Amino acid sequence: MTDIAAPAGIEDGFEDGEEEPNMVRIGKKPIMNYVVACMTLLNTGVADVMVRGRGQSITKAVFMKNIRIHSVDIGTEEVKREDGSTASLSMIEIIVGN
Q1: Is residue 12 part of a domain?
Q2: Which tens digits make up the pLDDT trace of 10-39?
Q3: How many domains in the chain?
Q4: 13 with 77: CB under 8 angstroms?
């Protein structure tokens, strides 16, 4: 739904069509853009929304208060850089819902 912020030279690691329809990928946009995206999804009737941030965007991914958290997953992903090498990025996935 939204673009994830990737450090310079690192692709976001998502192939076209791979993204889930109820996922909000946190990036460089103002935080209210992501809050509105999450609330819009929840108001359309989806059971839960995945909020996903990687690298420097992790701190923005933890923005919602007073909402039910179904699960939190943290880990490391390897992503390809533009030069063909790989880099490790920390990531967080938070499943929230009504």
Answers
A1: no
A2: 334 444 345 678 999 999 999 999 989 998
A3: 1
A4: yes
72-85 pLDDT, tens digit each: 999 999 989 899 99
Mind giving me the DSSP string for 39-87?
HHHHHTT-SEEEEEEEGGGHHHH----SSEEEEEEEEEEEEEBTTS-EE
Kind plus residue range of the DSSP H or E element containing 23: strand 23-25
The closest alpha carbon to 82, from 25, 6, 29, 17, belongs to 6
Residue 4, pLDDT > 80, answer no
CA–CA gap between residue 41 and residue 12 (Å, rounded): 22
What are the phi and psi torsion angles at 79 (to 5°)? -125, 150
**CATH classification of the domain holding 56:** 3.30.110.20
What mean pLDDT value characterizes the chain?
A: 80
The answer to whether residue 10 sits within a structural domain is no
Amino acid occupying residue 32: M
Query: Among residues 82, 89, 9, 17, which one has the least CA distance to residue 52?
Result: 89
